[in-house]
């Protein structure tokens, strides 16, 4: 066995290697690492950038409605993904802990508390059981080669509201849903299928072509007006930014039609191409309740279906009490179906 001199490392081939000074230094540090003595102490001087970013997050959370809605609609984009500010806050918290910055840690508490006050209730499970009427809304996707009719029928809903119907896929839905839903009407690209009789079915003119309809559903506890709508799409374009004009105009017309409905009990469902925090949906959200917000569990993101990051499909109610709301499993569409049960 080769002789190993002090301060040197022996090698299998008999050659001597000079000891690594860094290794020796690390060995000397081991006792201090074990005692936590090598950590930098908490400081009020570090973390000013993190603190500024935390204050910016707080400002956005509290005052997002006051962000100017200028060209490109940047405020709408921020509002659509507002719940994800929680991820930014968590990242800042980790930075504050790693850097052991007292300044940053205190600053991050502000957006953390603000986020919890805004969205903490949404995370709670508020779903109950029962309900006099269950509805399901689904943008079925005009390019879906495998219509989701059977999955929707298996949901047990009393009323189905379908969006993005076409001449090609309507016959498939009519065939699959005929036994469970003897009453149905299709107007333009939207349709209603119901276990209960429908009357006063009429298109709702929210835009140049028909993408909304209303009908009265006869239930054992009296009539309920049900609307299904598919608002114009929102696009992000380099030259124009976040384009919402068509959708915003359609929301106003839709809210007016709901307001003029003869029955006091109203349900509005569909693809709104906007989140609850989007100021463009205020004509609806200011007078109707989101079933998911009242009786759901979590944010219930619906789009894109493969990995949902935003909820743009909704069930709104007025004059009825949501009991439970949930998101159904993915179908072949790029949206996930949403469901809600209500007491009449």
Can you tell me about this structure?
- By secondary structure, the protein is an alpha+beta fold.
- The chain has ten helices and 16 strands.
- It has helices at residues 21-35, 48-63, 74-80, 85-99, 102-123, 149-154, 170-177, 245-259, 282-285, 291-295; strands at residues 8-9, 17-18, 133-139, 159-163, 183-187, 190-194, 198-203, 212-219, 222-230, 235-237, 241-243, 266-271, 289-290, 313-318, 321-327, 338-343.
- The strands form four sheets. It has a six-stranded mixed β-sheet with strand order 5-6-4-3-16-15. Strands 7-8-9-12-14-13 form a six-stranded mixed β-sheet.
- A hairpin with a 3-residue loop joins β10 (235-237) and β11.
- It is elongated and about 70 Å long.
- The N and C termini lie far apart (90 Å).
- Mean pLDDT is 89; it is low at 1-19.
Give me a quick take on this structure.
The chain is of the alpha+beta class and 344 residues long.
